[in-house]
Amino acid sequence: MFFTTIASVLFPRMENTYNFKVGMTCSGCSGAVTRILSKTEGVKSFDISLEKQTVSVVAAGLTQDQVFETIKKSGKPTEII
């Protein structure tokens, strides 16, 4: 995690993959996360597992903390894994 954060600061256009545990219990919950990530500039792709309650995000020009704060805007409990 530390290296990924440093790399994203030193090489901001480099694509990085960030993983989060997100409290999602239904398709509406995952839909809220999908809507917010779809509108976020720099997010190249993402994978949401409702079953595992995880979100994996590939982003360029965004730090892990920026993606974390973006997902938190969905109102779902979020933690970095």
Structure description:
Keywords: Chaperone, Copper, Copper transport, Ion transport, Metal-binding, Transport. One of its GO terms (biological process) is copper ion transport. Residues 15-79 form the HMA domain. There is one protein chain. The protein is of the alpha+beta class. It has one domain: 2-Layer Sandwich (Alpha-Beta Plaits), CATH 3.30.70.100. The chain is built from three helices and four strands. The radius of gyration is 12 Å and the shape is globular.
Dominant shape: globular
The total strand number stands at 4
SSE series:
HEHEEHE
> So how many helices?
3
How far do the termini sit from each other? 9 Å
Poorly predicted regions: none
What class, by secondary structure content?
alpha+beta
**Strand order in the largest sheet:** 2-3-1-4
CATH architectural grouping:
2-Layer Sandwich
- Report the CATH C-level class: Alpha Beta
Would you tell me the overall average pLDDT?
90
The overall number of domains is 1
What level of helicity do the residues show?
25-40%
**Biggest sheet overview:** 4 strands, antiparallel
Strand content: 25-35%
CATH topology: Alpha-Beta Plaits
Radius of gyration: 12 Å
Précis, in short:
With 81 residues, the protein is an alpha+beta fold. The chain has helices at 2-10, 27-38, 64-72, and strands at 15-22, 43-49, 54-60, 78-80. The protein is built from three helices and four strands; from the N terminus they run αβαββαβ.
